[in-house]
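Quick illustration, no need to memorize.
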Amino acid sequence: MTSAVLDKNKIATVAGNIVVYNFSSQTGEYTGSNVEYLPIGIGLPAYSTDTEPDVAYEGYVSVFNGVVWEQKEDHRGETVYSTADRSVSRVHYIGAIKEGFTTAAPSTQYDNWSGDEWVTDIAAQHAAAVAVAMGYQQQLIDNAMQSISVIQLKLQAARTLTDAEKSRLNKVLDYIDEITAIDTATAPDIDWPQLPV
């Protein structure tokens, strides 16, 4: 079978078969090759070239730029993180990872991008831990108060408490004192005491 011969405009001057290398109309990436028969005066099919691409390196894809094939980074499907707000997204484009994103995951919600790596804002992290500890401290006090609500009602009604109720009341009040005395500024390293039974 005769091979097609093309002129400088890629129009067949001799009819025949030719191997064409196809590329995506949207991304320019190599999509495969096939043999085409070109009659005289007919050019290559749309989105194809007679120039063979090099084998793409690992993590790269061959992209036709209209003149030659280029090796471009291919991170499609990879998870990236915004260096502005730590939001997560997936790469859906060919090329280097866009400015303002990194494949390095932040380790905490208090990390800020330094330009090279994530750096944890220790002060903000600690302030948040203290706020959580203060809320938990109040929750423990509320739970303790709830656990002796019946005893408190009896006291308000001037009823006599049993020895077991007096003991329970004293244990819970001691527990509330212990909880109240905890320095929440040491959060998150707090060993919370258990409500006595």
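The CA atoms of residues 27 and 94 lie 7 Å apart.
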